[in-house]
UniProtKB/TrEMBL annotation, chain A:
<dbReference type="InterPro" id="IPR027417">
    <property type="entry name" value="P-loop_NTPase"/>
</dbReference>
<dbReference type="InterPro" id="IPR013563">
    <property type="entry name" value="Oligopep_ABC_C"/>
</dbReference>
<dbReference type="GO" id="GO:0005524">
    <property type="term" value="F:ATP binding"/>
</dbReference>
<dbReference type="GO" id="GO:0015833">
    <property type="term" value="P:peptide transport"/>
</dbReference>
<comment type="similarity">
    <text>Belongs to the ABC transporter superfamily.</text>
</comment>
<dbReference type="InterPro" id="IPR017871">
    <property type="entry name" value="ABC_transporter-like_CS"/>
</dbReference>
<dbReference type="InterPro" id="IPR050388">
    <property type="entry name" value="ABC_Ni/Peptide_Import"/>
</dbReference>
<protein>
    <submittedName>
        <fullName>Peptide ABC transporter ATP-binding protein</fullName>
    </submittedName>
</protein>
<dbReference type="GO" id="GO:0016887">
    <property type="term" value="F:ATP hydrolysis activity"/>
</dbReference>
TrEMBL record, chain B:
<dbReference type="InterPro" id="IPR050319">
    <property type="entry name" value="ABC_transp_ATP-bind"/>
</dbReference>
<dbReference type="GO" id="GO:0016887">
    <property type="term" value="F:ATP hydrolysis activity"/>
</dbReference>
<dbReference type="Pfam" id="PF08352">
    <property type="entry name" value="oligo_HPY"/>
</dbReference>
<dbReference type="GO" id="GO:0005524">
    <property type="term" value="F:ATP binding"/>
</dbReference>
<comment type="similarity">
    <text>Belongs to the ABC transporter superfamily.</text>
</comment>
<dbReference type="InterPro" id="IPR013563">
    <property type="entry name" value="Oligopep_ABC_C"/>
</dbReference>
<feature type="domain" description="ABC transporter">
    <location>
        <begin position="9"/>
        <end position="255"/>
    </location>
</feature>
<dbReference type="GO" id="GO:0055085">
    <property type="term" value="P:transmembrane transport"/>
</dbReference>
<keyword id="KW-0813">Transport</keyword>
Amino acid sequence: MSEILEVKDLSVSFDTYGSEVKAVRNVSFQLMKGETLAIVGESGSGKSVTAQSIIRLVPTPPGKFIGGEIRFNGEDLLQKSEKQMESIRGKEISMIFQDPMTSLNPTMTIGKQIAEGLMKHQNMSKKEAHLRGIQLLKLVGIPTPEVRIKQYPHQYSGGMRQRAMIAIALSCNPKILIADEPTTALDVTIQAQILELMRQIQEEMGTAIILITHDLGVVANTATRVAVMYGGKIVETGMVDEIFFEPKHPYTWGLLGSMPKLDKEQEELQVIPGSPPDLADPPTGCPFVTRCPYAMNVCGEHMPSDTSVSSTHEAACWLLDERAPKVDIPESAIVGGNDIYV
Amino acid sequence: MSNEREKLLEIKDLKKHFKLDRKNVLKAVDGITFDIYKGETFGLVGESGCGKSTAGRAIMRLYSATEGKIEFGGEDVHQAKSKKMLKEFNRSMQMIFQDPYASLNPRMTIKDIIAEGIDIHALIQSPKERTARINQLLEIVGLNKDHGNRYPHEFSGGQRQRIGIARALAVSPEFIVADEPISALDVSIQAQVVNLLKRLQREHGLTYLFIAHDLSMVKHISDRVGVMYLGKMAEIAKSDELYHEPLHPYTQALISAIPIANPRIERSRERIILEGDVPSPVNPPSGCSFRTRCPLAMDVCAKVEPTWQEYKEEHWVACHVYDENYNAEHKARENQKVERIHV
């Protein structure tokens, strides 16, 4: 598989009253053609800021890029002017947001919102864009698209708005689609519809997807590879099976352990004690040190480096150092059989 | 659970309709019947707009019911009561709300928020005891006693939800309605709050009505689960049974839609994906309200509303597929399928 996007040592901070919040700290990853990379983590872990940086939607100020590169098509997106970015956004890289209620323009018809991109990037006439809009709505499974295209967002249900958002995002056949919690605001039955739709579209058009989510079920359902973020850093990356069946980082163990298991009777859920670090004053060592049950002296002082476990699997944890004591995966983090009605 | 369980709440044919204008009525809850036993957790699930929150609020008397009866400990909730009785009733039933940001008064300190119920019900007279009780409550929910002097904006979502729980516990209730108490929280924090709720139930013998749309968390916390669709109850069963042998086609689709955190299972799974959206409760479909999205819909489903029957022991369902009077078409179809496989 060839690489389509590479993020190298990206650091993003936000200026607030009295302090600088270091939301993303030295994040590096690659995105391959046609794959789905899931970025998981709690709120405040920096996953959304990372995604917004790729398409330069981080408001500056208060945000600022401290360093790093985002290489797409051999060029660094961070060096581009706002004008140049406009020809990339929507055309090469597009994004769908969590909340379909607030990310569509309530004063424009859905048709107009789809046509906007088509007329700008594909030089289509109004009429061509309208016809293409009907096709796109049909593609994302909206019934009677001829009628629906003339309607406003408030006339759509939540699931249909997210479909319309996907139609807008896909209108110019982008190479990369960034989906920031695309199903969090939706009910499970509608979530299943939208995930299925994204999968179909990826198969047909070969789009690479960056999926940002905190739901490990959604990750298991859609991802090819997974990056786990914590405290503004990527703490573990690997193929989806490696993350679920051979996780190496204690934070990943904690995440897997705090999911209720449908096939087991558990009296207590495993919890990660405490709360995430304050990124205005991030710890010098590993960001997880205060909540980690295996923390050693070295963890608070030095940030562990990324250690390769396999050619596709990396984790940043001192436990992987040869001098560290050997720790086995806790039982709670072992992904169960889940023999429920399927 | 013993065989002779004591009913704490009996809900009989509860209806709550909202009048929108002269012509339109929104039937948020349209005739639901179920019991909640003492000491159990009853989970109520369904998609947004199915009426689960309205049902919870009607039980709490936050809404007056349009029709039907709710009996709490043998007494009708909606019956006119003297002021004194009403107060006692309000004390024994408390609520935990979904949004920990909107449900705490930003201008009150934590200790005043927690003690508001204590003050209203005059449960404690001396200021010293009041402080002691507040500190005790803060400790129960895992907060620090010097948190009492702070204001809600100083706390994270998970901490605020703990404050909401402490407020509900302050008046020593018997029954707590938890309306989506964890859906606004992060996964690792959700586990903390759920463990706290379970521990409190063990220690204080509480009864919960747990309303949520996250089905895996509901299974974890509930003894029995009810599934609602468009204001009606589709199915009620013990939670294990509901997740392993769901009867109603809606429950089957709902459970099949839960993404399981195991990539191997996800790859091999055949999902039932429902088409379309939930119809409007202002103008619900005739007969069975689920028929427009039901993969098993028969002709009769448009004409006759399914009856609420106990199909197996303690497993209630409202679906014509399980009704001998109406399921001829379904059986014929199933037989055809079997024949096709054999040929």
